[in-house]
Amino acid sequence: MLIRIKFAKMGTMKFIGHLDLIRNFQRVFKKAQFPIAFSEGFNPHQIMSIGAPLSVGVTSDAEYIDVKVTEDIDFNKYIEILNNNTPQGIKILDMTKLPEKAKSAMALIDAAKYEITFSNVNITDEMINKLMSMDSIIILKKNKKNVTKEVDIKPGIFNIALTGDNTLKLLIATGSRMNVKPEVVLESLCKENNISYNKFDYKIHREEIYYKKDSTFVPLDQEL
To answer: H/E/C letters for each residue in 191-208?
Structure first.
């Protein structure tokens, strides 16, 4: 059976990178005697994958890990068991059964929504309008072959708006088709408005991850 686990990543766990997070879950599943399936071969490993890894330093209420289990399980029971074995800062929120031929979270994801709070800098509607009125927003990005190329991230910024004092909401492309990091959007916003960018002025929190169905963004835990 395939299941999708939704979890939060908070506190000091925001400093844990993607590979360390996977190792953490491997230990949690083993300690909790979770009936996760293993691959075959000389070096069997737990069958799981995490969609859209977070940047180090970013917290989240909506991370997803797909796993294959060897038996039907009581979701409420194992949510409690897993939470009793996770380190502080990781909380299992929900579990959803997936169809056998469901796409992995990593393959499905199209967008993510962030809440960004900031200090020591003044972001205004005029600054946002200036950025989004540009024909293109070009950044330099290295590909897997370590070759630097120009990339236009504007098509991947679906919405950016001030929603209160020192708070931004950001909906951007995320996933294998196009991936725009919130830090890059913030850096571009500062650059185009001639203000210095300091990553420590911003706290970035991921609120949800989506896939696109027709013209609507749907939360990943609603995929069936």
So the answer is: HHCCCCCCHHHEEEEEEE
